[in-house]
User: Fold these one by one.
Assistant:
Number 1:
Amino acid sequence: TEVEAVNMEEITGAQIIAEALKAQNVEYMFGIVGVPVIEVAMAVQGVGIKYVGMRNEQAACYAASAVGYLTGRPAVCLVVSGPGLIHALGGMANANMNCWPVVVIGGSSDQNQETMGAFQEFPQVEACRLYSKFSARPSSLEAIPSVIEKAVRSSIYGRPGACYVDVSGDMVTARVDRARVRAAPCCPPPPVSLAHPKAVTEAVAMLKTSKQPLVIVGKGAAYSRAEDEVQELVELCGLPFLPTPMGKGVLPDDHPQCVAAARSRALLQADVVVLLGARLNWILHFGLPPRFNPQVKVIQVDICAEELGNNVKPAVALLGDIRNVVSQLLGCFRKDAWRYQSDTMWWRSLKEKMNANERMSKALAAHSSVPMNYYTVFHHIAELLPHDCIIVSEGANTMDIGRTMLYNRLPRHRLDAGTFGTMGVGLGFAIAAALVESGRKTCQRVVCVEGDSAFGFSGMEVETMCRYKLPVIIIVVNNNGIYSGVDPHTWDELGKMGDLTTIAPPVTLLPEARYDQVMAAFGGQGFFVRTPQELRSALQLCLDDWERPSLLNVLIDPASDRKQQVGNFYQSNSG
């Protein structure tokens, strides 16, 4: 009727998507627009969601997943169909392996052209099932809000991960009466679960009988915001602790009970290990000999039932939210106090090894020769960085050595290659961290420490940083290659010998490449650094500048390597 026509308000698919995301408290969207998703990006801006245009879908997905880890609520990665989505699969896989929440929305070919060879036609929903917890296409415009609610909910409930929503091109621009759209309320924060009281009692009894206990703090503890509870447990009971790479900062790295500097000895000789949101995967050598005691007893705390018992059968399994389970343990120790004594042989052995390793690192850092080595570079960086800065790191030696020398003192202030060992994450992570920090009252610096090879994966994202005036400081530790390179003279000699594609070592990159000029080309600050004095001067200038991003291109000895370790037969990134 005419009255009904007057009262009918039509709404497009793009608007429905935007309003559904807003209803789920999504704050950020990263992506690269094109047919058929341009209208979606415009619509989300219209409802107050921040849209960040990136230069590659992989980096966009890395950024969106980092927001999920840092805030506990997923951001969205928006991509075009076919190749656009395929580029984002790396970010989805990385998010799933790291257990970080992210929602990817991909445009796809029109429904009436399916199987006809449409533009960028690809089986997107099916493809994403390998890389996500949930993958679906709404059956109608009316169903979009409920599918988006399920994607957001699935990304944060249980073990967090990636979720995918497919939207065909014709759905983006199609219209429907708003009254017919089924609104979905905002999904609440994930419900938290507690471990069985009997298992908690068993864990406490086992800890009290341990001779050489060790707490391993994983990024699951960081994600669950368990820092206060974990610190109280460690300090109340006098326990040595070891952070995993992204578990750094849950307790400060310079805490007197942190034994990271004696990592190998701590893992090998511990008789009881409390595993807080860390997995016994390659990063922890699977919990197996020769890196672990064959008789070690593991108290495993994890949110995911399927993770319990992977590689090593736990002596006690505590299924539940890390923060709440640690609170349960604390409740027992408060009622019946117990403290591991600080004068034991175990503590003396750990401190002896820590002091020896620290002396070795300091000796390497004291080298004043040019070109610099890794330890010299990180020594000077560590002296100048603010204690509250967020450190993003990727590379091989750059990430490994930097992890031991650049301290984190706050939780969720380190982002790196992670469980998947992914190269190329750095600039996307840094962009995400800078955006999240810009919305907080106590805005903290974001410093991205990259190997020169790692920088190359996503280097063009410096334009994104310049465009949005994000004051990220990128430090490229440049050794002219992957793992190691050659100096300019050697490179020239190789060129004289013939075709470089058959002569140049596969690990080599162009010597002394001017990555600093890439940043300067877009309006940021670029510094070419050879000496410790130049490094300190340039870094201080960057720390004083909150208006634009900066890049320090720090040349080091192409042959520089990590200090030798006894039994150094494990993978480079085995933090």
Note: Confidence is low (pLDDT under 50) at residues 565-575.
Number 2:
Amino acid sequence: MKTFGFLMISTFLVLFATLLPYSSASTTRRFHFNVEWKKVTRLCHTKQLLTVNGQYPGPVVVVNEGDTVEIKVTNRIAHNTTIHWHGLRQYRSGWADGPAYITQCPIRSKQSYTYRFKVEDQRGTLLWHAHHSWQRASVYGAFIIYPRQPYPFSGSHIQSEIPIILGEWWNDDVDKVEKQMLKTGAGAKVSDAYTLNGLPGPLYPCSTKDTFTANVEAGKTYILRIINAALNNELFFAISNHTLTVVEVDAVYTKPVHTKAIMIAPGQTTTLLLRTNHLSDGEFLIAATPYVTSVFPFNNSTAVGFLRYNNKSKPVNHPNRRRLITSLSTRAVLPDMLDTKFATRFSDSIKSLGSAEYPCKVPTTIDKRVITTISLNLQNCPENQTCSGYDGKRFFASMNNVSFIRPPISILESYYKKQSKRVFTLDFPEKPPTRFDFTGVDPVSENMNTEFGTKLFEVDFGARLEIVFQGTSFLNVENHPLHVHGHNFFVVGRGFGNFDAEKDPEKYNLVDPPERNTIAVPTGGWAAIRINADNPGVWFIHCHLEQHTSWGLAMGFIVKDGPLPSQTLLRPPRDLPKC
């Protein structure tokens, strides 16, 4: 098999200097993932950490646009697992999408499953991660697609690339953190640190040696591939004394945006150009800290790394680094954690490139509109139980007041075999069951007990679908990152308060809206997306704050087969796992 540069990469300094920036060749790329435990130490704590191939973060997967990809995943742990290729469209290959009990049964202990799919009409930075319980806390990595054509970026030659994956670290066993949350009905224990490529940096205990450093040369242009793989936090990211230029989000080219910082939600990717315009050697802070819109407890710390010029300058003496990097210096680099105005300006600045070669194919008319609330809920504590949520109740979450329940078998398989009875129903409400002042209700004195079910809705192949995500103020207003599987979508509108179906569509951007796979719905507001529903299968929509997904903030939809053989779901693979 012909290889292409480094196909799986475990080091996270400046990478890919030897790779071609584009390639017209396509072939079959084969990889092998072993899901296994690895003893890892961070913050003075050593524990068994779930990894792929013993790497944390996991290996970088590099392919070309047009490639066929086969990734054999072998489960070497006692628990079930799956892997999701986040943002890959999986055209007609929903069997390879990965969410447990949605498109497949999990891979059992000591068994393997090969994910097979073709990378069609996609290029750029994506990610892969586990999609079973909270395993993606440490099981994640970059998925990079090199384009057939040269980059459309104007400017200098690209010197090389630097992938930076933002994550979270728990000293505790994350599986136990999740189980305790579900047992008590309370919120989950927050993480102990944020990480840059798995390294927390010198602001945390015992972490000076665990600091990410990127070595660069002055007067060059670098590509930064920023990925938010954090479990429960949206994040701000910046590099001190440098301007960043956004050229791509979620593997879709954008009009260039110059900014001092970015806001990036879990599941989102942002590709940046970094011009190293400082003439002298030295180090500059790379920093990430949470964007906070919730009243729930959160980790209010900051991960720090360094951009080091020329690789000739001596690093600051390690014992002194923590004293030199004060909270004041990081605040000068990053927006304030509560800076919704910055987050809004940044999100509004992102526009599709919309060129002749990369047109913006937003639907200008629609066949169906679904309006769904996204809510946190309080549920009365069951008899003879003690619950630790607010007011002695349990926390749940819902869409249109339905808290999603994963069935015991795969929805896609039951749909394909026409055996949906007792697995799912096609009665997801396409508008809120009760109209009220969604973002104006008192957060704690008003509440709706949620219903529970595995409810989906269905559309014809080729339907032009609009979904409006409407936030609510139950418990608190919050920014929710919503991820749609199997399709990209266009963010045609966003706003604060309640969506007005008569007035707000008049202000939609139907010229160059950003094309994404994950949308950060504004805190106390709404977002409208449009989808060309041209991928047959069953597709998951869920909050990418894992705590909220566990509470039920999810739904699904089905795209029927089209009339042509090329518009139908492929047959299930022979090695598809069994429940």
Note: Residues 77 and 109 are 6 Å apart (CA to CA).
